[in-house]
Amino acid sequence: MKLKNLEFLGPVFIIAGLLVSRYLFPNKITFFTEISIYTIYVMGNNILMGYMGYTSFGQPFYLSCGAYSAAIYLAYIGGNVFVAIFVAFLVGLLLSFILGPSLMRLKGSYFTLINASLCAIGVFMFERLLIDITNGNDGLWYRSNMHKTPLLDIRMPQNYFFFILIVLLAALYLYRKIDRSALGTVLKAASTNPRKMRFLGYNVFRIRWMAFTISVVFSTIAGALYSVNFGFVNPSLGENSRAIEVLLATLIGGIGTVYGPFFGALGFLGMKDFVSSFLSRWEFVVGIMTLIVLFKFNRGLWGMIQDAGSFLADTGRKFKNNSVKTAEK
Amino acid sequence: MNQGNKLLNVEKLNVCYGKLAVVFDVSVNINAGEVVFLVGRNGAGKTTLLRTIAGFLQPASGEIEFNGKNLNKTGAYKTARMGLKYIHQDKQVFGDLTIRENLELSSYATKDYDWDPVFKMFPKLNTIIERKAGNLSGGEKQMLLIAMAMIGKPALVMLDEPTEGLAPHVIKDLAAIFKEISRTTTLFIVEQNLPLIASIADRVYCMKEGKVVNEITTREQISSMHFEQYL
Question: What value of ipTM does the predicted structure carry?
Answer without folding.
Answer: 0.79
